[in-house]
């Protein structure tokens, strides 16, 4: 984090000086570590627990438990929320509405994984609309004595053909009494690169929203899914060991004693092994029980998922299918958690995103949007039997119970069953 004494440009650049040198700090390395497991780049981490000879026997067995848990826990944007307000149509015409929900869904997963994320709103002058980026690596900027960032610094991506010789960082600060908001670039040599004549922030607000998995208590950066990542690594190592045990149990570990010349030993399915007098030949198998290894891995995965409000059912479990009521009870804790995080994190996020988008659209197009804006999050479908669903919708239609945006219960039913319909 960057802490400065005042809001002057000289003080801001001076405070950034040390942060540039330590941008690849311990926190960012930990975030890279979690992202590697989410994206499935885990072979190097698993290799550390095995010798090169062991790895020649079998392929590495990776699980990618991390991605699955992040996907299961991130259900707020599974279906796009409805936007309600006077200027909704004008607003939708000035943003990348098609890509918005996909990036919000990914933001929710990344917030669960990393704990704290940044979401950038930017104007695309070619397409004349607001578009969005995820910022997993960034440095918030604070004034001494304040716990809310007044600015942010993040690296400008320069992959592929856009790669430049010197890494550049974008700096944004908000407007405060007596200090206009700033926007400029700096490189690793602390050379300032202007993007406009006055290094001014045309929006007055920082076009970046910070999102936390939970409310910060001690540190502004909150913990992410480190428990899931550790379980993912342990499970992948355990499954690789299980594969080795199966391999060695199938072919065995051959050993010979009492032979003074190893060149006399030739093995093969089409060969006869001749041993001199006094020599001994044997085959050993792993002593551990495969079922015990499997049960240990299963317990590890189950404990991790339960700690994250996820119920798991393994493939070999027997019994009748649970009823709709039983499933609803089992998912109650996860649903309660979803409701809480929607109110604590994602509803404030939507309000902040609209406020920033409104500033950007007004500055770029002179279009004034209404401050009135609401978001109706689509509730997850309840687990009901066909008979219960018929009774539920019959009761709603007979009593003309509509949704918050005033559409009829008939339209609600149609949207419920076909959310893509216009």
Helix/strand layout:
Elements: E1 2-4, H1 9-21, H2 26-39, H3 43-47, H4 52-55, H5 65-73, E2 82-84, H6 88-93, H7 97-114, E3 116-124, E4 129-135, E5 139-143, E6 151-155, E7 168-173, E8 183-187, E9 192-194, E10 208-212, H8 226-251, E11 253-257, E12 280-284, H9 290-307, H10 324-330, H11 332-365, E13 374-376, H12 386-398, H13 409-417
Parallel strand pairs: 1-5
Antiparallel strand pairs: 2-13, 3-4, 3-10, 5-6, 6-7, 7-8, 8-9, 11-12
List keywords for this structure.
13 strands, alpha+beta, single chain, 42% helix, 422 residues, six-stranded mixed beta sheet, flat, three-stranded antiparallel beta sheet
What do these coordinates show?
- The chain is 42% helix and 15% strand.
- With 422 residues, the protein is of the alpha+beta class.
- The chain is built from 13 helices and 13 strands.
- A six-stranded mixed beta sheet has the order 1-5-6-7-8-9, with helices on one face. A three-stranded antiparallel beta sheet has the order 4-3-10, with helices on one face.
- Helix 2 crosses helix 5, helix 5 packs across helix 7 and helix 8 packs antiparallel against helix 9.
- The radius of gyration is 29 Å and the shape is flat.
- The longest helix has 34 residues.
- About 1% of the residues have low confidence.
